[in-house]
Amino acid sequence: MKAMLLNSYGADSVFEAAEVPKPELKPGHVLIKISASSVNTVDTMIRNMGGELPLSPPAPAILGMDVAGAVEAIGEGITTFSVGDEVYGCVGGLADLQGTLAEYVVADARLIARKAKNLSMREAAALPLVAITAYEGLMRAGIGAGQKVLVHGGSGGVGHVALQLAKYFGADVYSTGGGEKQLALIERLGATPINYKTEKVEDYVGKHTGGAGFELVFDSVGGANLSNSFEAAALNGQIATTVAMCELDLNPAHFKGLSLHVVFMLIPMLHDHQRETHGEILRELTKIAESGNLTPVLDENQYSLDQAGEAHARLESGKAMGKVVIDH
């Protein structure tokens, strides 16, 4: 099969087209003919950092985590899928799991679900990593109807899904963005936009919550921005973040009695730990999408498999609006 190989890691690394053996089917797995995949920040981190990241596969590697496609063959013990099923999931591209920048991938059946009928393959491929992350974070933080929820980075990959899911669960949603296009997208998706470049945390907390703070903060920016989340949260509030690799003063969180939920959605893939939860979440996301309450936003630029490097560059440029998707 055709695949895009990364023979070495680093800022100057390039994807090279190669013919590699088609992956062999295993018990509990399905063979997927890939229609589309998408690029996530973690993919670019692996390409740039290689061995510095403990989750990077050894080179030469086939990267790519998200996939949408059709089941071409089913392994021993599989009763939940049939040949021809259109599926999606986050299935490889790290550790010893082959990635999705190829024509085919063998995926653990616990990591996939049938895609929503009203989404294209491109749209379905955009969802798995970011949508599982958003869903897990909101659930762990106890999302509920009537809550005031703040999403940091609501025009980003994870953020634009978290915003829609929070709305679906009945919350009153607010979201930060840093430019006219970002703020317009946030508003279009049904949240109240907040320009973090011109509005201080204290000011928008006062304006939107009467100074009480947000009951739930979903911080897809994380790092140093977590201090803003602590400031924006209500007493005994809940904070979910996807980026906690930092040193931070927890005193503000202590005196507010905040709960911090760190979401690292790759754990089931990396450690073969409760992988079935990803399939369960994806099945819920399919229902939400089919109800019309979840629509992924795709970047306007389109890329073929041969243009994997350009797709990575697009995401790294910071100019992409929505998910960068690769057509296979």
UniProtKB/TrEMBL annotation:
Compartments it resides in: Cytoplasm
Keyword match NADP: yes
Pfam families in the record: ADH_N, ADH_zinc_N_2
Signal peptide: none
InterPro entries the record matches: ADH-like_N (IPR013154), ER (IPR020843), GroES-like_sf (IPR011032), NAD(P)-bd_dom_sf (IPR036291), Quin_OxRdtase/zeta-crystal_CS (IPR002364), Zinc-ADH_QOR/CCCR (IPR051603)
SUPFAM superfamilies named among the record's database cross-references: GroES-like, NAD(P)-binding Rossmann-fold domains
Domain Enoyl reductase (ER): 10-326
Subunit structure, interactors included: Homotetramer.
Protein known as: Zinc-dependent alcohol dehydrogenase family protein
